[in-house]
Amino acid sequence: MLRPTGKKEAHGLLSGGFLFSPNNRIKHSTSSRRPLITLRAFVLCCLLVLATTYVPLSSAAFKKDEWHRVKGDDVTYQYFEHAATGVKLKVEKNSGICEETPGVNHYPGYASFNEDEHMYFWFVEGRNSPTIAPFAINLAGGPGGASMAELTPTSSNTYNLNHTVNMIYIDQPIEAGFSYGLNVVGSTDAAAPYVWNLLQAFFAGFDEYENQDLSIITSSYGGHYGAVFADKIQQQIKKIDSGSGNSKRIEIATLVLGNGWYDGAIQYKAIIEYSRNNTYRPLISKLKAEEYLREYYLHCLPAQRLCDDDLGNFKKCEDVYWKCGIKRSLLSNRDFYVYDIRQSDEDGRPDVMQAIGAKSSWEYSSDRVYKRFGLYSDSSHSALDAFSKVVRSGVTTLSYAGDADMVDDWFGNLDVADDIDYDGTSSFASKRLVPYAVNGTVKGEFKTFQNLSFLRVYDAGHAARHDQPALAFQAFNQTMRKKAISPT
Q1: 277: part of which helix (H) or strand (E)?
Q2: Any transmembrane segments, and where (predicted)?
Q3: pLDDT digits (tens, 9 = 90+) for 265-278
């Protein structure tokens, strides 16, 4: 059972037909601190001002599958009810907040699944040729992280992805970020239907984008989200192709995963090795590393294997928490920032909330979501099988990791990439990392084979895309074009 220790954002302390119907739900990271001070201030100032609130609307007054204008408190919203899923979208168009480029549309709003479940999202068009630009969703980790934290002022950020990509940021599951409601989702599998139904409604309402392939960009606990959600979407497509589903096709084009948590059997060992042998400084002694390795082989690995072999057995997967305390121990009581070992550790505005009448205050990471996922031992469930299936299907995939992050370290992320089961496994695993340059300046090292690439990001913590924005912009755009990454 997951029990947070220390900062609530420290997801690394985790022990780790098929109609996507929320009614069939199961009952039951973040960036380096200093670079995010400005971003957090921006998020609180910008997002809270624009957070739309759900106003119950009588669906009888509107025709389904058509847009309608609804006058709210000093704001005119656009409302769309998707007949197939029952999802209701309520958005505000072009508020002038965050995206100020003339002619570039953006839509913050809610997808409401019923009167009690409301998921916040923000869609920002690509600044160049949006109707043919790649389309991507951004999911924060956590579990419980707010994707809105990834938003930056697009007009002033040279490396913002929406220069070239249509981006939709989703606060999921419900109770993450601005999303709110009576929701009890406690696993990655149970969270997937909401994102699928939101996308079904979105592409029905914004049909100018419906024929575009979908990319998933995520990080941290998104190692679970990205791999599992992509696999679930592909399962849906197979049902549609077999004639047993009537949903819109959503083809997964690319998958981008950063500093992810995927597989305990691999990553509990890797954090011991990283703590001793990272390129910055040893964080534990050789003797301590040997003690942790004995604990791993005697207690942690056997417990993790029992869970992996019987995922439906709650007791076996709960035992991983008790038997795999290695990571919690290594991350606890440190005098440095575990999300970026180069840094020392350091520890909603009510007036704005009242002014905008928001129903849910904004949280960087939701404790409620985090604890629910812990109760159901979701982090003990390996995402490696789902990850492998997505890569085997041909999806262009980039796994990257900042090399100063201890929580989801690059040693473990590389080991996971080497263990992905596809027809290029042996060739990929045998390749050495080589320099990755941006305009002639080496900023990392990488390897690639067929549709899979791995990138170690130098001088970057858990939020590598913020620490090395030029590198992230280059690597992401290469991947979005369904190409293997390459130095410039």
Answers
A1: helix 264-277
A2: 37-57
A3: 999 999 999 999 99
